[in-house]
Structure formats: structure tokens, C-alpha cells
From TrEMBL:
Parts of the chain that traverse the membrane: 451-469
Entry annotated with the keyword Metal-binding: no
The species this protein was found in: Flagellimonas lutaonensis
Matching Pfam families: BatD
The protein, known as: Aerotolerance-related exported protein
Amino acid sequence: MRLCYLTYVLLFSLLAVPNLWAQDDEVSFQVNLSKEKLGVNERLRVEFTMNKDGDNFVPPDFEGFNVIMGPTQQISSSWFNGKRSFSKSYAYILTPTKQGVFTIKQASIEISGKTYKTVPKKVEVTAAVDNPNAPPSADDIASESLDLVAEISKGSPYLNEAVSVVYKLYISPNIRVTNYRPIDNPKYNNFWSQDIPVTKYNTVNTTYKGKPFRSVVLKRMVLYPQKTGKLEIEPLSLEIYVDVPTNRRDFFGGRIYKQTSKIVSAGKRVLNVKPLPEAGKPANFSGAVGEFDFTVSTSKSSLNASESLQAKIEISGKGNLKLFQLPDLELPSALEVYEPEFEEKVRTTTSGMEGKVANSYTIVPSYKGKYPIPSISFSYFNPKTEKYHILESEEITLDVLQGPTDTSTPVAASGGSPKYVVPTGKQFHFIKTSTTLTNIGQDIFLGSTRFYLFLISPLLLIPIAILVFKRREAIASDVEGNRLKRADRLAKKFLSKARKELGNKDNFYVALEKALHNYLKAKLKIETSEFSKEKITTLLAEKNVDDDTINGFIALLKNCEMARYSPFSDVQMQQDYDKASEVISKIDKQL
């Protein structure tokens, strides 16, 4: 009986061993999906697993999905009761691009010289669903914790009325922002625009959408619309780099953060710009919009003939100070007037331009007498009162105390004030035509030592003149050297202000960008500040400037833009200054 039992066990073992060998030799390569139906706002985990190691893994193209993570590879191997267990996997995290039914196509791998493929699987993508139970990923947390908003001071401004645009980034206290870079900067077409640099990023605790947030101002602009109707403000887009907390902790118990990035956009905004009213518009209105004061003054009220004085027309206040013309000064014809010198002291804040502009005239009277400077007027539109206002200056009388007498008679001017006309042929009647000569001494110059010294000195200067001439000829013949010197002088001329601002990042890059545009404006006789970098590239290429030099010029313009949002070291500023000097010299040489 016992012998029969042992025989049965032996026979069973012999029959079972081949089956185990057959199982060990069987290769398994398959695909596993985290779900076969998901919302367009959910994620899909696709894992390709095999029970034997292989080579040359080729994943499918994942049509209809974006790969946001992967492939992540995992290998496990173990022995149990003398039997080896092996597993290897490639995992991907996908997000759907749209709704529909998509197929995860075949993946392939080579195992022991043979190619194995997975079976295609279909996935249905539905509309967005609520998924509160799924743990949010780092990207999900970043999306919920960041928002960029463009705050506009006024949605329906008048033509040439100031509108401030403040770009604020709202940040949840759960994450940390490490850096950011601009993706797309608006061009502000149909606006006169002024950037107000943000020198310090101050974080303010606030409430946003009913939740506690922190806000920081990243960019500020002041716009003056130059057209009426609906004007679009293009969106500002930024890529924000953030640290997102995870559920893991380090050895000391501190929370482990994961870095990710998120692209945020302020969105397109539309202004409805109203035209200035025609009713009540003064005849001398020149486009001034705001609140202003107007004065006409002179540096002195009494003087002598042939002396000079300054007459100043000054407009001060708050408004579009750089966008209108000052009224002209009306003077009697007997007063000689020079072209005015324009003075400007204007600063721009988020509420608009403030300060003063003025024209300063130099006046020289020729005759004795009293000369009236008639009253002149200045008109502007006030958006707050929605009315036009006219300011009148007081009449000023100039008293010329000493000088020749004008025999002409006053003639009434068109404004009612007298003008003095000088008769033809009597403009210079006060100049003396006779002279009184006096003896300057008894020494005779002819034949004296000084006479012979002055006679010989030109002969002594001839060798010096020859040496100077040869030296100048040698310099003139050095064409390449002269060209390089001119280029260096040109670079120093345009970059002088940027050099003074080295070490001050914001002022340096503003001055550097202005120098680059001013250089092209001077060389090509065009206004390049209105051009895009692509247009400038085309323009320089048409002038046969080589690609390396063009790329260097464009790279400098990009650095000037990046410097407004990113930290730049003193070493980087010095390198950009040296590069700008080199690029200007190269372009000037090729042009």
C-alpha cells in the first residue's frame, strides 16, 4: 500500500515538472489602463508590463493624448521556493486633448530575439467630470493656486485719457513661486504706452474668489488711447515656476516639494474709447486732456535795448502732457524772437502723466519804448467734468529803458494789440558811422625785432606743417583702422548712458534697449521702436548684415526684455554691454 502511494507521488511529480518549465518559458507582454472611460479633465495611466527582460521598447504614438509624464521604468525580481519571479514595466501619465473614442495602439519589445506586441485598447473620453476623491497632482495644485489678472482703471475712457493696466499674480499660500518668464508680451497697438518698472515685488495677503490668497504686482502700464471705438488690449502670458508640496516628508520631518511650471494668461481685454464731444470745443483746442494750469511769464519786465530776456509759456498739471502742442507766443514785430527751447519735466505713475512742459523764448528789443505781450489762451478737456476749459494769460508790458528811439508809429494787430513796424532803411540808424582815432604809441614796428620775428616764424612752421600733413595722410590711408575707430566712437556715443547705469539693472537695460533702437534709427533713418524683432531681423537682412550679427542684436533686445522680470548679475550686465558695443561696430562696418 505504501509502495503504491510513493509510486503515485513520483509519477505526479514527473508529470508536473514539464508544466512548470513550460510556464517559465512563456512570455507575457501586455498593457494595463488605469481606466477605460474618463473625463477630458482627468488623467490616464498606461502601463506596459512583461515577465522577462527585453530590449528596444517602442511605445505607441498616443494619438489624442498629451504625455505629461513618463516613461517611468520599474523592475522587480524575487525567488520563492526555488522559483524566480521577474517583472518589468514602462508607465506613462496621459491627459486627453479632446472628447471622443481613442485607441491605445500596439507597443513592441524584443525578448530573446523575438518581437512581442501588446493588444490595442480603446479609451472613451467624456466631458469634464468632478473627481474629488482622486488625489490632485502637482500640476492640478498649481492650476488651482495661480491666476494672472489684468486690472484696468477705466473701461470706457475718453480719447487721450489715461488708463492704467496693472498685472497681478494671485498665489495660493499652499505653493511657492520660484521664478517666471514672459511667454507673450502685448504690443498695445493704437495706444501711446508707458511702462512703469516694478523695482520691488511686494506680496500682499488678500482674498481672491472667496479664498485666502497672496497677490504681487508683476507689471504696470499706462495707456493713452489714440483711436475711438473698441480697442483690444492683447493678453500677457507668463510661465510660472512653482514648488508644490507633496505628502512625503524628508528624514527630518520636513515636507518634500515638487517643482512644476504653469502657463497663466491675463486674457484679452477690450476698452470702449469715447470720442471727445464736439459741443463747446474751442477753436484753438490742440488735444490736451486732463487737468492743467497755464502761465506766461518773463524773466524781467524792464531792460535796455540789445539786452535779452526770457519769455516762458508753461503748462503744468496731470494729463497727456506729451501729446499736445503748446500755444505760440505773439509778439510785436519790433522785438527780435528766437526759436523756443522746449523743456519737459514729466513723470508717469499709474494714474497717468504729471509734471510740466514749457517753451522758453529768447527776446531781444531793438528800440526804447513800451511793448505789450498780448494775452494768449490755452484750452483743454477735463474728463472728470466732461467739459472744455479755456485759460487766458495776462497781458505783459516790456519797458525798454535805454536805446535808440523808434520813429515808427504803432499799428493795430489783428488781436487788437498794437504792433510796431520798423520803417525800411532805418533799422540801423542808431549805429555810429564816424570814428575818433587816438595815437597808440611812438614805437615804429617796421624793422623792429618783432617785425623780423613775425616775418621768419611762417618759415619755421613749414617743417611742422609737412610732418602734420604726412601724419594725417598715413592715418587717412588706413581705411580699415579708420573704419574701426569710427565704429568704436559710434558705439560709445550710443552706449554712453547705458555705461553710466552699469550695476543698476533696470536703468541699464532700459538705456541699452533705447541705445540699440536709436542706433538703427540713426543709421537707417527709420523708427524701429515700433517694429517687432522679426521685422528688425528682416530689415537688417535686407541690408546684407550677416546672420551671426543679426542674432546677436536680437539676443540683446531679448535680454533687455527679460531683465524686467528676471534677476541679472553685474557680470551679465557687463557682458551685455561689451556685446552691444561689438554688435554695433559690426553692423556699422557691414552697412
